[in-house]
Amino acid sequence: MRVIVLGAAGFIASHLVEELIRQGHEILGMDDLSIHDGQRPKWVHSTRKNGAKWILGGVGDCANEWNIHQELTEFDPDVIFNLAVKPLPHSLEYPVDNFKTNTAIIYNILDTMKRVNRKREYTDRNPIRLIHFSSSEVYGTAQDDIMTEEHVLRPTTPYAAAKNACDALVISYVKTYGIDATIVRPFNTIGPRQNDKSYAAIIPLTVKRIKEGIPPIIYGDGSHTRDFTAVEDIVRGAIAAMKHGRPGEVYNLCSSVETSVIQLMDMISDELGYKGGYQFSDERPGDVTRHLGCNLKAKKELGWEPKVPIREAVRRAIHG
Length: 320
What we know:
The protein is of the alpha/beta class. It is built from 11 helices and 13 strands. The protein has a single domain (2-190, 229-255, 294-307), classed as NAD(P)-binding Rossmann-like Domain (Rossmann fold).
């Protein structure tokens, strides 16, 4: 199949691109490289050698409607994976820009799909299929012991509010215009290639501080919990959603294992042989206190379940 991956130079997306290539799909990756400070990461070059096509920089900006229209029309994909996003930490500094950009991206995708699909009604081509990456952040803090797809949505940051709006727009286009779109909600994903530059994730940031001889930083008291899942498992779940997901449905991709931030820090410290202490700081604005996802729907409907234990996922994230 012909597949477009948006935000393709990012952490999860780069692993997804590689797996799709391994499975024999024809790939076009788009990315504005904003989280890479404008630099092309090395996996762009390796995937290009394996046949992937890339649209990078300004012409890879998915918030630009013309860019999306141009590539959907010219590349003529069967499937789109949308991972293009301004991340959560960005929303704490630039809330309006974060909301506008993230919602513009999904609107551009959906409206272009609607127009392209109308033309396909006169051919033998099936409508384009969209796998939209949401976020567990739309749930806010867990109100029950475990967060199913029916959990109340109470976003606590501008980023989470934007992702919530994006999900609602996807579902509205499914119901109103018959768009073929499925939503996946990854919980906290860990593995090699997590961003270590602007808006660095917890593992690369902690590793960097330890290697520089600086105590790792914990926001709050470390009791906040998350549901960590290996990036390899998230990629398998996204591809399972491409094959088996129902239009308009949402699927949690998570380990269903609850881990506190301080437990994660201890795992990182053990892996690196770090014996020092931690630096505690004030909680970040809008930070959720508890996340534990339910993956039963994905197991039942997608035939997917996570395989990598968290300690192994942490090891791979540190050592690659």
